[in-house]
From TrEMBL, chain A:
Protein name: ABC transporter permease subunit
Coarse class of the protein's main subcellular location: membrane
Family annotation (Pfam families): BPD_transp_1
Residue ranges of domain ABC transmembrane type-1 in the record: 86-301
Keyword Metal-binding on entry: no
Subcellular location: Cell membrane
GO biological process: transmembrane transport
Bilayer disposition of the protein: Multi-pass membrane protein
Family statement drawn from the similarity comment of this UniProt entry: Belongs to the binding-protein-dependent transport system permease family.
Automatic annotation (TrEMBL), chain B:
Family: Belongs to the binding-protein-dependent transport system permease family.
Lineage of the organism: Bacteria, Bacillati, Bacillota, Bacilli, Bacillales
GO cellular component: plasma membrane
Major subcellular site: membrane
Native source species: Cohnella rhizosphaerae
Descriptive protein name: Carbohydrate ABC transporter permease
Keywords: Cell membrane, Membrane, Transmembrane, Transmembrane helix, Transport
Pfam family, one: BPD_transp_1
Cellular compartment(s): Cell membrane
One of the GO BP terms on file: transmembrane transport
Amino acid sequence: METTTASQAGKKRRFKSSHRRKDGYKLLLAALPFVLIAFAFSYVPLFGWIYAFFDYHPGIPLSKTPFSGLDRFREMFSDPRMGPVLMNTLALSFLSILTAPIPMLFAIMVSEVRSGWFKRLVQTVSTLPHYISWIIVYALAFSMFSTEGAVNAFLMKLGLGGAPVDVLGNYERVWTVQTLLLLWKSVGWSAIIYLAAIVSIDSEQYDAAKVDGAGRRRTIWHITLPSIMPTFIVLLLLSISNLLSAGFEQYLVFSNVMVADRIEVLDLYVYRLGLVTGDYSYSTAVGMFKSIISIVLLFTVNLLSKKFRGQGIV
Amino acid sequence: MNSTTASKPAAVASKPERRKRPIDYKDWTFNFFNYLILALLVLATIYPFYYIFIYSISDSIQAQKGVTFWPAGFSLEAYQTTVKLPGIMDAAIVSLSRTVVGTLITVFCCSFFAYLITKEELPFRKAIYRFVLVTMYFNAGFIPWYLTMKTYGLQNSFLLYVLPTALAGFNVILIKTFIEQLPASLEESAKIDGAGYFKIYTSIIFPLSMPIIATIAVFAAVGQWNTWFDNYFLVESPKLQTLQLVLYNFLNQSSNLSNATTEQLNRGDLVRTLTPQSIRMAITMLVTLPIVLVYPMLQRYFVKGIMMGAVKG
Protein backbone atom coordinates (compact mmCIF):
# COMPACT_ATOMS: atom_id res chain seq x y z
CA MET A 1 0.00 0.00 0.00
CA GLU A 2 2.76 2.30 0.95
CA THR A 3 4.67 1.75 -2.24
CA THR A 4 1.67 2.76 -4.36
CA THR A 5 1.20 6.05 -2.53
CA ALA A 6 4.90 6.68 -2.83
CA SER A 7 4.89 6.04 -6.54
CA GLN A 8 1.93 8.35 -6.95
CA ALA A 9 3.88 11.00 -5.15
CA GLY A 10 6.76 10.20 -7.42
CA LYS A 11 4.62 10.82 -10.52
CA LYS A 12 3.56 14.19 -9.22
CA ARG A 13 7.13 15.19 -8.65
CA ARG A 14 8.50 13.92 -11.93
CA PHE A 15 10.15 17.23 -12.66
CA LYS A 16 12.42 16.58 -9.74
CA SER A 17 13.65 13.30 -11.14
CA SER A 18 17.25 14.31 -11.86
CA HIS A 19 17.44 15.59 -8.33
CA ARG A 20 16.12 12.28 -7.14
CA ARG A 21 18.75 10.37 -9.06
CA LYS A 22 21.49 12.39 -7.43
CA ASP A 23 19.93 11.64 -4.08
CA GLY A 24 19.85 8.01 -5.07
CA TYR A 25 23.60 7.91 -5.64
CA LYS A 26 24.18 9.57 -2.31
CA LEU A 27 21.98 7.05 -0.55
CA LEU A 28 23.62 4.15 -2.34
CA LEU A 29 27.01 5.41 -1.27
CA ALA A 30 25.80 5.70 2.30
CA ALA A 31 24.38 2.18 2.26
CA LEU A 32 27.54 0.67 0.79
CA PRO A 33 29.52 0.37 4.05
CA PHE A 34 26.67 -1.61 5.62
CA VAL A 35 26.41 -3.93 2.65
CA LEU A 36 30.15 -4.47 3.00
CA ILE A 37 29.82 -5.25 6.72
CA ALA A 38 27.13 -7.83 6.01
CA PHE A 39 29.25 -9.25 3.20
CA ALA A 40 32.43 -9.38 5.24
CA PHE A 41 31.00 -10.98 8.36
CA SER A 42 28.23 -13.18 7.02
CA TYR A 43 28.97 -14.02 3.39
CA VAL A 44 32.74 -14.22 3.26
CA PRO A 45 32.89 -17.02 5.88
CA LEU A 46 30.80 -19.10 3.46
CA PHE A 47 33.83 -19.24 1.17
CA GLY A 48 35.50 -21.14 3.97
CA TRP A 49 33.33 -24.09 3.02
CA ILE A 50 35.90 -24.74 0.32
CA TYR A 51 38.16 -26.22 3.01
CA ALA A 52 35.76 -29.14 3.24
CA PHE A 53 36.86 -30.23 -0.24
CA PHE A 54 40.56 -30.21 0.52
CA ASP A 55 42.86 -32.03 2.81
CA TYR A 56 43.89 -28.82 4.48
CA HIS A 57 46.39 -28.53 7.28
CA PRO A 58 47.14 -25.22 8.93
CA GLY A 59 50.44 -23.79 7.73
CA ILE A 60 50.30 -25.19 4.20
CA PRO A 61 48.59 -22.79 1.75
CA LEU A 62 45.39 -24.04 0.19
CA SER A 63 46.92 -23.87 -3.30
CA LYS A 64 49.42 -26.58 -2.36
CA THR A 65 46.82 -28.73 -0.63
CA PRO A 66 45.51 -31.83 -2.42
CA PHE A 67 41.90 -31.63 -3.55
CA SER A 68 39.91 -34.35 -1.86
CA GLY A 69 36.47 -33.99 -3.43
CA LEU A 70 33.79 -35.49 -1.26
CA ASP A 71 36.16 -37.71 0.71
CA ARG A 72 35.84 -35.66 3.87
CA PHE A 73 32.07 -36.03 3.68
CA ARG A 74 32.33 -39.78 3.19
CA GLU A 75 34.56 -39.88 6.24
CA MET A 76 31.56 -38.93 8.35
CA PHE A 77 29.94 -42.30 7.71
CA SER A 78 32.94 -44.25 8.88
CA ASP A 79 33.66 -41.94 11.82
CA PRO A 80 32.84 -43.95 14.96
CA ARG A 81 32.33 -40.78 16.99
CA MET A 82 29.65 -39.46 14.62
CA GLY A 83 26.93 -41.82 15.89
CA PRO A 84 27.16 -40.94 19.57
CA VAL A 85 27.47 -37.23 18.76
CA LEU A 86 24.34 -37.28 16.59
CA MET A 87 22.59 -39.28 19.29
CA ASN A 88 23.48 -36.68 21.94
CA THR A 89 22.38 -33.81 19.70
CA LEU A 90 19.05 -35.38 18.79
CA ALA A 91 18.34 -36.56 22.32
CA LEU A 92 18.96 -33.14 23.84
CA SER A 93 16.93 -31.45 21.10
CA PHE A 94 14.03 -33.87 21.54
CA LEU A 95 14.07 -33.38 25.28
CA SER A 96 13.88 -29.63 24.85
CA ILE A 97 11.03 -30.05 22.35
CA LEU A 98 9.31 -32.27 24.90
CA THR A 99 9.46 -29.44 27.43
CA ALA A 100 8.12 -26.93 24.90
CA PRO A 101 4.57 -26.88 26.35
CA ILE A 102 5.89 -25.80 29.76
CA PRO A 103 6.44 -22.13 28.89
CA MET A 104 2.93 -22.11 27.44
CA LEU A 105 1.50 -23.56 30.63
CA PHE A 106 3.52 -21.10 32.63
CA ALA A 107 2.15 -18.20 30.58
CA ILE A 108 -1.42 -19.39 31.19
CA MET A 109 -0.75 -19.63 34.90
CA VAL A 110 0.72 -16.13 34.97
CA SER A 111 -2.19 -14.72 33.00
CA GLU A 112 -4.60 -16.18 35.56
CA VAL A 113 -2.94 -14.27 38.39
CA ARG A 114 -5.13 -11.40 39.48
CA SER A 115 -2.86 -9.55 41.82
CA GLY A 116 -0.89 -7.02 39.75
CA TRP A 117 2.27 -6.89 41.82
CA PHE A 118 2.57 -10.65 42.04
CA LYS A 119 2.16 -10.98 38.30
CA ARG A 120 4.89 -8.42 37.73
CA LEU A 121 7.14 -10.14 40.24
CA VAL A 122 6.72 -13.53 38.60
CA GLN A 123 7.35 -12.13 35.15
CA THR A 124 10.37 -10.06 36.13
CA VAL A 125 12.01 -12.83 38.12
CA SER A 126 11.33 -15.64 35.67
CA THR A 127 12.77 -13.69 32.73
CA LEU A 128 15.99 -12.78 34.53
CA PRO A 129 17.89 -16.01 33.76
CA HIS A 130 17.52 -15.31 30.06
CA TYR A 131 19.82 -12.31 30.42
CA ILE A 132 22.71 -14.00 32.13
CA SER A 133 25.39 -15.87 30.24
CA TRP A 134 25.82 -19.64 30.36
CA ILE A 135 28.99 -19.06 32.31
CA ILE A 136 27.01 -17.43 35.08
CA VAL A 137 24.42 -20.20 34.91
CA TYR A 138 27.32 -22.60 35.31
CA ALA A 139 28.63 -20.66 38.28
CA LEU A 140 25.17 -20.69 39.88
CA ALA A 141 24.62 -24.37 39.15
CA PHE A 142 28.05 -25.15 40.51
CA SER A 143 27.32 -23.29 43.72
CA MET A 144 24.05 -25.16 44.08
CA PHE A 145 24.88 -28.70 42.97
CA SER A 146 28.59 -29.33 43.36
CA THR A 147 29.67 -31.70 46.11
CA GLU A 148 30.30 -28.72 48.38
CA GLY A 149 27.35 -26.76 47.03
CA ALA A 150 24.19 -25.51 48.70
CA VAL A 151 22.08 -28.60 48.10
CA ASN A 152 24.57 -31.04 49.53
CA ALA A 153 25.34 -28.75 52.44
CA PHE A 154 21.63 -28.49 53.18
CA LEU A 155 21.12 -32.25 53.00
CA MET A 156 24.05 -32.70 55.31
CA LYS A 157 22.58 -30.22 57.78
CA LEU A 158 19.36 -32.21 57.82
CA GLY A 159 21.40 -35.32 58.32
CA LEU A 160 19.98 -36.84 55.13
CA GLY A 161 23.02 -36.94 52.92
CA GLY A 162 25.26 -39.95 53.01
CA ALA A 163 27.88 -39.30 50.37
CA PRO A 164 27.47 -35.91 48.66
CA VAL A 165 25.63 -36.13 45.33
CA ASP A 166 27.49 -34.78 42.31
CA VAL A 167 24.61 -33.60 40.13
CA LEU A 168 26.74 -31.98 37.42
CA GLY A 169 29.00 -35.00 37.06
CA ASN A 170 26.26 -37.61 36.84
CA TYR A 171 26.73 -39.61 33.66
CA GLU A 172 23.31 -41.28 33.62
CA ARG A 173 21.25 -38.19 34.39
CA VAL A 174 23.17 -35.59 32.42
CA TRP A 175 20.54 -35.17 29.68
CA THR A 176 17.82 -34.58 32.23
CA VAL A 177 19.96 -32.20 34.24
CA GLN A 178 20.91 -30.19 31.16
CA THR A 179 17.31 -30.05 29.94
CA LEU A 180 16.18 -28.77 33.33
CA LEU A 181 18.93 -26.14 33.33
CA LEU A 182 17.86 -25.01 29.87
CA LEU A 183 14.27 -24.86 31.05
CA TRP A 184 15.26 -22.84 34.11
CA LYS A 185 17.05 -20.34 31.88
CA SER A 186 14.41 -20.03 29.20
CA VAL A 187 10.94 -20.62 30.62
CA GLY A 188 10.15 -17.01 31.55
CA TRP A 189 11.48 -15.65 28.30
CA SER A 190 9.65 -18.14 26.12
CA ALA A 191 6.47 -17.40 28.05
CA ILE A 192 6.49 -13.71 27.05
CA ILE A 193 5.41 -14.49 23.52
CA TYR A 194 2.47 -16.57 24.82
CA LEU A 195 1.54 -13.85 27.28
CA ALA A 196 1.44 -11.39 24.40
CA ALA A 197 -0.86 -13.77 22.54
CA ILE A 198 -3.11 -14.17 25.60
CA VAL A 199 -3.36 -10.41 26.11
CA SER A 200 -4.53 -10.00 22.53
CA ILE A 201 -7.45 -12.42 22.98
CA ASP A 202 -10.75 -10.58 22.75
CA SER A 203 -12.03 -10.21 26.32
CA GLU A 204 -15.63 -10.49 25.08
CA GLN A 205 -15.03 -14.18 24.62
CA TYR A 206 -14.30 -14.55 28.32
CA ASP A 207 -17.30 -12.44 29.29
CA ALA A 208 -19.57 -14.56 27.11
CA ALA A 209 -18.18 -17.74 28.62
CA LYS A 210 -18.73 -16.38 32.10
CA VAL A 211 -22.34 -15.56 31.29
CA ASP A 212 -22.72 -19.13 30.09
CA GLY A 213 -21.45 -20.26 33.47
CA ALA A 214 -18.02 -21.54 32.47
CA GLY A 215 -15.46 -21.73 35.27
CA ARG A 216 -11.81 -20.85 35.09
CA ARG A 217 -10.63 -24.23 33.95
CA ARG A 218 -13.16 -24.36 31.16
CA THR A 219 -12.35 -20.88 29.88
CA ILE A 220 -8.68 -21.83 29.83
CA TRP A 221 -9.41 -25.06 28.01
CA HIS A 222 -11.87 -23.66 25.48
CA ILE A 223 -10.67 -20.10 24.94
CA THR A 224 -7.11 -19.44 26.08
CA LEU A 225 -5.53 -22.67 24.88
CA PRO A 226 -7.01 -22.68 21.36
CA SER A 227 -6.10 -19.00 20.96
CA ILE A 228 -2.42 -19.53 21.68
CA MET A 229 -2.13 -22.86 19.90
CA PRO A 230 -1.01 -21.26 16.59
CA THR A 231 1.89 -19.57 18.41
CA PHE A 232 2.82 -22.89 19.95
CA ILE A 233 2.80 -24.61 16.58
CA VAL A 234 5.02 -21.95 15.00
CA LEU A 235 7.55 -22.19 17.80
CA LEU A 236 7.44 -25.96 17.69
CA LEU A 237 8.12 -25.97 13.96
CA LEU A 238 11.01 -23.56 14.45
CA SER A 239 12.51 -25.79 17.10
CA ILE A 240 12.28 -28.73 14.74
CA SER A 241 14.31 -26.79 12.20
CA ASN A 242 16.89 -26.22 14.93
CA LEU A 243 17.11 -29.92 15.69
CA LEU A 244 20.83 -30.13 15.05
CA SER A 245 21.70 -26.88 16.79
CA ALA A 246 21.52 -27.97 20.40
CA GLY A 247 23.05 -25.11 22.40
CA PHE A 248 26.78 -24.94 21.90
CA GLU A 249 27.64 -22.65 24.80
CA GLN A 250 25.63 -24.57 27.33
CA TYR A 251 27.31 -27.89 26.67
CA LEU A 252 30.76 -26.42 26.27
CA VAL A 253 30.47 -24.79 29.67
CA PHE A 254 28.93 -27.77 31.44
CA SER A 255 31.25 -30.31 29.87
CA ASN A 256 33.45 -32.16 32.35
CA VAL A 257 35.40 -35.40 32.37
CA MET A 258 32.49 -37.37 33.76
CA VAL A 259 29.79 -36.29 31.31
CA ALA A 260 31.72 -35.05 28.24
CA ASP A 261 30.84 -38.15 26.23
CA ARG A 262 27.13 -37.69 26.65
CA ILE A 263 26.85 -33.96 25.99
CA GLU A 264 29.19 -33.64 23.08
CA VAL A 265 26.70 -32.26 20.56
CA LEU A 266 27.38 -31.64 16.89
CA ASP A 267 28.50 -28.03 17.32
CA LEU A 268 30.83 -29.02 20.10
CA TYR A 269 32.25 -31.84 18.03
CA VAL A 270 32.87 -29.46 15.14
CA TYR A 271 34.77 -27.18 17.46
CA ARG A 272 36.79 -30.03 18.96
CA LEU A 273 37.69 -31.45 15.54
CA GLY A 274 38.75 -28.03 14.34
CA LEU A 275 40.60 -26.37 17.15
CA VAL A 276 41.58 -29.25 19.40
CA THR A 277 42.43 -31.91 16.82
CA GLY A 278 43.37 -29.35 14.17
CA ASP A 279 41.51 -31.13 11.37
CA TYR A 280 40.08 -28.01 9.73
CA SER A 281 38.82 -29.75 6.63
CA TYR A 282 36.88 -32.49 8.31
CA SER A 283 35.51 -30.06 10.89
CA THR A 284 34.29 -27.79 8.09
CA ALA A 285 32.71 -30.75 6.32
CA VAL A 286 30.79 -31.75 9.45
CA GLY A 287 29.78 -28.15 10.04
CA MET A 288 28.61 -27.81 6.46
CA PHE A 289 26.61 -31.02 6.74
CA LYS A 290 24.90 -29.56 9.80
CA SER A 291 24.19 -26.18 8.16
CA ILE A 292 22.73 -27.79 5.06
CA ILE A 293 20.48 -30.14 6.99
CA SER A 294 19.31 -27.23 9.14
CA ILE A 295 18.46 -25.14 6.09
CA VAL A 296 16.64 -28.06 4.46
CA LEU A 297 14.70 -28.62 7.68
CA LEU A 298 13.80 -24.94 7.85
CA PHE A 299 12.49 -24.95 4.30
CA THR A 300 10.59 -28.18 4.82
CA VAL A 301 9.00 -26.93 7.98
CA ASN A 302 8.19 -23.64 6.28
CA LEU A 303 6.59 -25.50 3.39
CA LEU A 304 4.54 -27.66 5.76
CA SER A 305 3.46 -24.56 7.62
CA LYS A 306 2.39 -22.88 4.37
CA LYS A 307 0.45 -25.94 3.35
CA PHE A 308 -1.40 -26.49 6.62
CA ARG A 309 -1.62 -23.00 8.07
CA GLY A 310 -1.61 -21.04 4.83
CA GLN A 311 1.26 -19.02 6.24
CA GLY A 312 5.02 -19.48 6.36
CA ILE A 313 7.09 -19.11 9.49
CA VAL A 314 10.10 -17.26 8.12
CA MET B 1 7.78 -14.04 50.53
CA ASN B 2 6.24 -17.43 50.44
CA SER B 3 3.79 -16.81 53.25
CA THR B 4 2.45 -13.55 51.80
CA THR B 5 1.80 -15.09 48.41
CA ALA B 6 0.14 -18.11 49.94
CA SER B 7 -2.21 -15.96 52.03
CA LYS B 8 -3.14 -13.84 49.01
CA PRO B 9 -5.52 -16.27 47.30
CA ALA B 10 -7.40 -16.69 50.55
CA ALA B 11 -7.96 -12.94 50.71
CA VAL B 12 -9.05 -12.80 47.08
CA ALA B 13 -11.39 -15.74 47.38
CA SER B 14 -13.09 -14.63 50.58
CA LYS B 15 -14.81 -11.68 48.90
CA PRO B 16 -16.98 -13.35 46.26
CA GLU B 17 -17.68 -16.28 48.59
CA ARG B 18 -20.82 -14.63 49.87
CA ARG B 19 -22.32 -14.33 46.42
CA LYS B 20 -21.79 -17.55 44.49
CA ARG B 21 -20.83 -20.53 46.59
CA PRO B 22 -20.60 -23.48 44.17
CA ILE B 23 -17.97 -22.06 41.77
CA ASP B 24 -15.93 -20.38 44.44
CA TYR B 25 -14.57 -23.46 46.09
CA LYS B 26 -13.08 -24.59 42.80
CA ASP B 27 -11.83 -21.10 42.15
CA TRP B 28 -10.14 -21.00 45.49
CA THR B 29 -8.25 -24.26 44.94
CA PHE B 30 -7.26 -23.13 41.49
CA ASN B 31 -5.90 -19.86 42.82
CA PHE B 32 -4.18 -21.53 45.71
CA PHE B 33 -2.24 -23.99 43.56
CA ASN B 34 -1.60 -21.43 40.86
CA TYR B 35 -0.07 -18.96 43.31
CA LEU B 36 1.79 -21.69 45.15
CA ILE B 37 3.45 -23.13 42.07
CA LEU B 38 4.36 -19.71 40.73
CA ALA B 39 5.78 -18.68 44.10
CA LEU B 40 7.90 -21.82 44.18
CA LEU B 41 9.16 -21.08 40.67
CA VAL B 42 10.06 -17.55 41.69
CA LEU B 43 11.94 -18.98 44.64
CA ALA B 44 13.77 -21.51 42.49
CA THR B 45 14.87 -18.72 40.16
CA ILE B 46 15.92 -16.23 42.79
CA TYR B 47 17.52 -18.54 45.31
CA PRO B 48 20.78 -19.31 43.47
CA PHE B 49 21.45 -15.58 43.11
CA TYR B 50 20.57 -15.02 46.74
CA TYR B 51 22.74 -17.91 47.84
CA ILE B 52 25.76 -16.56 45.99
CA PHE B 53 25.16 -13.18 47.54
CA ILE B 54 24.90 -14.36 51.15
CA TYR B 55 27.83 -16.72 50.72
CA SER B 56 30.00 -13.96 49.28
CA ILE B 57 29.40 -11.68 52.27
CA SER B 58 29.67 -14.46 54.82
CA ASP B 59 32.68 -15.12 56.92
CA SER B 60 34.59 -17.57 54.75
CA ILE B 61 35.40 -20.16 57.39
CA GLN B 62 31.93 -20.19 58.93
CA ALA B 63 30.34 -20.41 55.48
CA GLN B 64 32.12 -23.68 54.80
CA LYS B 65 29.74 -25.36 57.20
CA GLY B 66 26.96 -24.30 54.87
CA VAL B 67 24.75 -21.24 54.52
CA THR B 68 21.08 -21.51 53.69
CA PHE B 69 18.97 -18.47 54.46
CA TRP B 70 21.24 -16.01 56.24
CA PRO B 71 24.89 -15.09 55.85
CA ALA B 72 27.14 -16.88 58.34
CA GLY B 73 28.97 -14.05 60.00
CA PHE B 74 29.88 -11.03 57.94
CA SER B 75 32.99 -10.25 55.97
CA LEU B 76 33.81 -8.33 52.82
CA GLU B 77 37.22 -9.90 52.59
CA ALA B 78 36.25 -12.01 49.58
CA TYR B 79 35.47 -8.85 47.61
CA GLN B 80 38.58 -7.07 48.80
CA THR B 81 40.71 -10.01 47.65
CA THR B 82 38.80 -10.49 44.40
CA VAL B 83 39.25 -6.89 43.32
CA LYS B 84 42.99 -7.27 43.87
CA LEU B 85 43.26 -10.52 41.87
CA PRO B 86 45.51 -10.06 38.85
CA GLY B 87 43.57 -9.25 35.70
CA ILE B 88 40.20 -8.64 37.29
CA MET B 89 40.22 -4.88 36.95
CA ASP B 90 41.53 -5.03 33.38
CA ALA B 91 38.81 -7.54 32.53
CA ALA B 92 36.15 -5.31 34.04
CA ILE B 93 37.36 -2.43 31.90
CA VAL B 94 37.41 -4.58 28.76
CA SER B 95 33.89 -5.88 29.44
CA LEU B 96 32.63 -2.39 30.09
CA SER B 97 34.29 -0.95 26.98
CA ARG B 98 33.00 -3.68 24.71
CA THR B 99 29.53 -3.13 26.12
CA VAL B 100 29.61 0.62 25.54
CA VAL B 101 31.44 0.67 22.21
CA GLY B 102 29.72 -2.41 20.81
CA THR B 103 26.30 -1.06 21.70
CA LEU B 104 27.01 2.33 20.14
CA ILE B 105 28.21 0.72 16.93
CA THR B 106 25.22 -1.61 16.72
CA VAL B 107 22.74 1.15 17.44
CA PHE B 108 24.25 3.50 14.88
CA CYS B 109 24.68 0.92 12.13
CA CYS B 110 21.27 -0.69 12.52
CA SER B 111 19.34 2.56 12.84
CA PHE B 112 21.13 4.47 10.08
CA PHE B 113 20.91 1.51 7.73
CA ALA B 114 17.22 1.05 8.57
CA TYR B 115 16.65 4.73 7.79
CA LEU B 116 18.39 4.40 4.43
CA ILE B 117 16.23 1.38 3.63
CA THR B 118 13.06 3.41 4.20
CA LYS B 119 14.09 5.84 1.43
CA GLU B 120 12.26 5.15 -1.80
CA GLU B 121 15.01 6.92 -3.74
CA LEU B 122 17.61 4.33 -2.75
CA PRO B 123 18.45 2.27 -5.84
CA PHE B 124 18.22 -1.53 -5.38
CA ARG B 125 16.43 -0.88 -2.09
CA LYS B 126 14.72 -4.26 -1.91
CA ALA B 127 17.82 -6.17 -2.96
CA ILE B 128 20.02 -4.44 -0.39
CA TYR B 129 17.45 -5.01 2.34
CA ARG B 130 17.17 -8.72 1.52
CA PHE B 131 20.93 -9.06 1.28
CA VAL B 132 21.22 -7.98 4.89
CA LEU B 133 18.13 -9.78 6.21
CA VAL B 134 19.08 -13.15 4.80
CA THR B 135 22.15 -13.19 7.04
CA MET B 136 19.79 -14.03 9.90
CA TYR B 137 19.13 -17.46 8.46
CA PHE B 138 22.52 -18.91 7.69
CA ASN B 139 25.74 -19.46 9.46
CA ALA B 140 28.94 -20.63 7.82
CA GLY B 141 30.01 -22.68 10.80
CA PHE B 142 32.78 -22.65 13.30
CA ILE B 143 36.00 -23.16 11.34
CA PRO B 144 35.05 -20.83 8.45
CA TRP B 145 34.17 -18.15 11.00
CA TYR B 146 37.40 -18.74 12.88
CA LEU B 147 39.58 -18.60 9.78
CA THR B 148 37.81 -15.54 8.38
CA MET B 149 38.28 -13.58 11.58
CA LYS B 150 41.93 -14.58 11.59
CA THR B 151 42.33 -13.49 7.98
CA TYR B 152 40.89 -10.09 8.85
CA GLY B 153 43.54 -9.78 11.55
CA LEU B 154 40.91 -9.62 14.27
CA GLN B 155 42.69 -12.21 16.39
CA ASN B 156 43.79 -10.59 19.63
CA SER B 157 42.03 -7.39 18.66
CA PHE B 158 39.37 -5.42 20.47
CA LEU B 159 37.60 -4.88 17.15
CA LEU B 160 36.67 -8.58 17.15
CA TYR B 161 34.30 -7.83 20.01
CA VAL B 162 32.50 -4.89 18.44
CA LEU B 163 32.64 -5.14 14.63
CA PRO B 164 30.98 -8.45 13.68
CA THR B 165 27.87 -7.56 15.68
CA ALA B 166 27.45 -4.17 14.00
CA LEU B 167 24.55 -5.11 11.76
CA ALA B 168 21.79 -7.46 12.90
CA GLY B 169 18.96 -8.17 10.49
CA PHE B 170 16.39 -8.48 13.22
CA ASN B 171 17.21 -5.05 14.68
CA VAL B 172 17.04 -3.54 11.21
CA ILE B 173 13.51 -4.94 10.73
CA LEU B 174 12.36 -3.49 14.06
CA ILE B 175 13.78 -0.02 13.45
CA LYS B 176 12.65 0.11 9.84
CA THR B 177 9.10 -0.78 10.86
CA PHE B 178 9.21 1.93 13.50
CA ILE B 179 10.54 4.63 11.18
CA GLU B 180 7.87 3.83 8.60
CA GLN B 181 5.22 4.64 11.19
CA LEU B 182 6.61 8.13 11.80
CA PRO B 183 4.74 11.00 10.10
CA ALA B 184 6.44 11.76 6.79
CA SER B 185 5.60 15.45 7.06
CA LEU B 186 8.36 16.09 9.60
CA GLU B 187 10.98 14.83 7.23
CA GLU B 188 9.48 16.70 4.28
CA SER B 189 9.63 20.04 6.05
CA ALA B 190 13.24 19.45 7.10
CA LYS B 191 14.03 18.62 3.49
CA ILE B 192 12.48 21.86 2.31
CA ASP B 193 14.69 23.66 4.82
CA GLY B 194 17.61 22.11 2.97
CA ALA B 195 18.64 19.40 5.42
CA GLY B 196 20.56 16.46 3.97
CA TYR B 197 19.85 12.80 4.74
CA PHE B 198 22.37 12.50 7.52
CA LYS B 199 21.14 15.73 9.09
CA ILE B 200 17.55 14.48 8.94
CA TYR B 201 18.66 11.20 10.49
CA THR B 202 20.49 12.80 13.40
CA SER B 203 18.04 15.60 14.13
CA ILE B 204 14.67 13.96 13.39
CA ILE B 205 14.68 10.22 12.80
CA PHE B 206 17.06 9.18 15.55
CA PRO B 207 15.43 11.21 18.35
CA LEU B 208 11.94 10.18 17.28
CA SER B 209 12.92 6.49 17.14
CA MET B 210 14.21 6.58 20.69
CA PRO B 211 11.68 4.04 22.05
CA ILE B 212 12.78 1.29 19.67
CA ILE B 213 16.42 2.35 19.76
CA ALA B 214 16.47 2.14 23.54
CA THR B 215 15.09 -1.39 23.32
CA ILE B 216 17.74 -2.43 20.84
CA ALA B 217 20.49 -0.73 22.80
CA VAL B 218 19.50 -2.68 25.89
CA PHE B 219 19.51 -5.99 24.00
CA ALA B 220 22.85 -5.20 22.39
CA ALA B 221 24.39 -4.17 25.72
CA VAL B 222 23.29 -7.34 27.48
CA GLY B 223 24.56 -9.37 24.55
CA GLN B 224 27.94 -7.67 24.65
CA TRP B 225 28.29 -8.08 28.39
CA ASN B 226 27.49 -11.79 28.15
CA THR B 227 29.46 -12.77 25.06
CA TRP B 228 32.63 -14.66 25.71
CA PHE B 229 33.14 -17.22 22.94
CA ASP B 230 34.94 -14.70 20.69
CA ASN B 231 37.27 -14.08 23.60
CA TYR B 232 37.58 -17.80 24.30
CA PHE B 233 38.51 -18.83 20.79
CA LEU B 234 40.34 -15.88 19.31
CA VAL B 235 41.81 -13.66 22.00
CA GLU B 236 44.69 -14.88 24.11
CA SER B 237 46.10 -11.53 25.13
CA PRO B 238 45.55 -11.15 28.90
CA LYS B 239 44.98 -7.43 28.38
CA LEU B 240 41.82 -8.17 26.39
CA GLN B 241 40.20 -10.82 28.61
CA THR B 242 36.54 -10.26 29.37
CA LEU B 243 35.07 -10.62 32.82
CA GLN B 244 32.97 -13.60 31.71
CA LEU B 245 36.00 -15.58 30.61
CA VAL B 246 37.94 -14.68 33.73
CA LEU B 247 35.07 -16.08 35.76
CA TYR B 248 34.98 -19.21 33.62
CA ASN B 249 38.70 -19.83 33.92
CA PHE B 250 38.44 -19.20 37.59
CA LEU B 251 35.67 -21.76 38.05
CA ASN B 252 37.66 -24.34 36.14
CA GLN B 253 40.88 -23.69 37.95
CA SER B 254 39.33 -23.85 41.36
CA SER B 255 41.59 -26.72 42.29
CA ASN B 256 44.69 -24.76 41.31
CA LEU B 257 43.43 -21.89 43.30
CA SER B 258 42.87 -23.92 46.41
CA ASN B 259 46.43 -25.14 46.07
CA ALA B 260 47.61 -21.58 45.85
CA THR B 261 45.56 -20.68 48.88
CA THR B 262 46.96 -23.53 50.90
CA GLU B 263 50.44 -22.44 49.95
CA GLN B 264 49.71 -18.95 51.09
CA LEU B 265 48.17 -20.39 54.20
CA ASN B 266 51.32 -22.27 54.96
CA ARG B 267 53.39 -19.19 54.40
CA GLY B 268 51.12 -17.34 56.78
CA ASP B 269 50.03 -14.84 54.16
CA LEU B 270 47.01 -12.57 54.27
CA VAL B 271 44.54 -15.13 52.90
CA ARG B 272 44.34 -17.07 56.11
CA THR B 273 40.60 -16.66 56.51
CA LEU B 274 39.52 -17.02 52.90
CA THR B 275 38.43 -20.13 51.00
CA PRO B 276 38.44 -20.38 47.18
CA GLN B 277 34.70 -20.99 47.38
CA SER B 278 34.20 -17.50 48.82
CA ILE B 279 36.32 -15.91 46.14
CA ARG B 280 34.39 -17.81 43.48
CA MET B 281 31.13 -16.46 44.89
CA ALA B 282 32.48 -12.91 44.97
CA ILE B 283 33.61 -13.04 41.34
CA THR B 284 30.29 -14.51 40.25
CA MET B 285 28.57 -11.66 42.07
CA LEU B 286 30.72 -9.07 40.30
CA VAL B 287 29.92 -10.51 36.88
CA THR B 288 26.21 -10.96 37.60
CA LEU B 289 25.53 -7.76 39.50
CA PRO B 290 25.44 -5.34 36.56
CA ILE B 291 22.72 -7.42 34.91
CA VAL B 292 20.72 -8.00 38.07
CA LEU B 293 20.85 -4.32 39.04
CA VAL B 294 20.09 -2.86 35.64
CA TYR B 295 17.62 -5.52 34.60
CA PRO B 296 14.44 -4.63 36.55
CA MET B 297 14.65 -1.05 35.30
CA LEU B 298 15.02 -2.17 31.72
CA GLN B 299 12.51 -4.99 31.85
CA ARG B 300 9.84 -2.98 30.05
CA TYR B 301 12.17 -2.42 27.09
CA PHE B 302 12.85 -6.12 26.89
CA VAL B 303 9.19 -6.99 26.90
CA LYS B 304 8.47 -4.31 24.34
CA GLY B 305 11.23 -5.68 22.15
CA ILE B 306 10.00 -9.23 22.09
CA MET B 307 6.39 -8.11 21.60
CA MET B 308 7.39 -6.16 18.52
CA GLY B 309 9.36 -9.13 17.32
CA ALA B 310 6.33 -11.31 17.87
CA VAL B 311 4.08 -9.00 15.92
CA LYS B 312 6.59 -8.95 13.07
CA GLY B 313 7.26 -12.65 13.04
